[in-house]
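Session log. Operator J.P. requested a structure for one protein chain; no other inputs attached. Running the standard single-chain path with token output.
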Amino acid sequence: MSIPIMARARACPYPHRPPPKRPNHAPGTPAEQDVCTYHLVRVSRNRKTGPMPVTTTSANSCPPGCSFKGNGCYAEGGPLAVHWRSVSEGRRGHSFDELLQEIATLRRHALWRHNQAGDLTPEAPGVIDSRKLTRLAMANRGRRGFTYTHYPPTPGNQAAILNANRLGFTVNLSAETLAQADAYAGLGIAPVVVVLPQGVTRSIRTPAGRQVIVCPASTGNSDCLNCGICQQRDRASIVGFPAHGTGAKRVQAIFFEGKSS
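Structure written below.
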């Protein structure tokens, strides 16, 4: 992946080495620490996303409660895992401020995906840094950014996610089962996506009767660049992603365990 030549930021995968201080270029805000590393490529070679801008965030951004963490996450296997490891170890990527600068230079109305691997920046384990998420949403102004999060919808996280969506940066709540998808949709704060069993190609319904459409990129009928449904904040449908990658069977098991409980 080719990226512009920029100063490299180091994540914090080394417990014996404190993360470096980084300047915060936002007016009127104090300096703060970067806890994650961020990588942006302007033209992705990922077949499912298509040739669009895509970011990756270091693995320490993932919430500890995600059931797929170390248990079937698609980003932990295949070619993406090699790239993600480099970003997580600080050998590739930028600081948060540098990420915002890059996003602000994307063309107007550009559709881009935040986090093909990784999640939102944490303030504490399981807690979204609402200030950073707001800054990310502001940098996205005039563009069509979207992402997914496995952070639990606690009151604080709900407020951060709702604010980002209102500012025009789409944050999808990622559910692990159909029942959880219903619960997330019932919150009314963000669009919802859900994992599905392998091989599902047709729309299905949740227990509450909500429609789940299968991601067109998963079936090979389109890619993110030509679809864009996950960026639509007010859509009625839940988007389903059939389990894929080397850990697909483990992901599928989580889905069926939740369905039977």
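Operator note: The longest helix spans residues 248-260.
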